[in-house]
# Entry
Amino acid sequence: MDALEMLLTRRSVKSYWPDRMPDAELIEKVIEAGTFAPSGRGKQSALIVAITQQAVRDELSAINAQILGTTSDPFYGAPVALLVLADSTSPTHRDDGALVMGNLLNAAHAVGLGACWIHRARETFETERGQQLLRDWGISDHYVGIGYCVMGYGNKTPRPATPRKADYVHYIR
Ligand SMILES: Cc1cc2nc3c(=O)[nH]c(=O)nc-3n(C[C@H](O)[C@H](O)[C@H](O)COP(=O)(O)O)c2cc1C
# Structure
């Protein structure tokens, strides 16, 4: 698949086979693409926490559900959660983190995996439990949550892209 086709055909996958863990090499390829995202002043302010341990994945999903006010799994059964954090001391940290998220989502599609951005990482890592997890992982409390790229093998065809809005682009010629 060429790069442009990949960008146009990626869709958010919102249902996964929970027991189909992608091979580690495939996960690493996606992560590597994430680390090559551009960043303000080249500071690489973002950080990726690759979560495949089910207990941690389940706990983060449960916290996310609590914040969302639901009892369903906000990670849609995905066995992998790539948590993107970013160093809040960098003025571009949220932009840097969002670009890492974009690379992860597109790279997952490029290697044949499904993925979706799941929100509420910021709120999660502002909680006492979130702060404790950062300490357990040896990550400074300067880091804030940007998003989760949940990933795995989808078990439903994602919804097709909605038509692009008519006024998406203004050409100044
Ligand atoms: C900042 C951001 C936050 C998102 N948060 C969630 C989320 O919490 N849960 C979810 O199911 N999808 C989430 N999405 C995915 C969007 O629902 C999805 O990108 C949108 O519906 C367009 O679909 P597409 O990605 O297939 O083009 C998020 C996307 C972005 C960019």
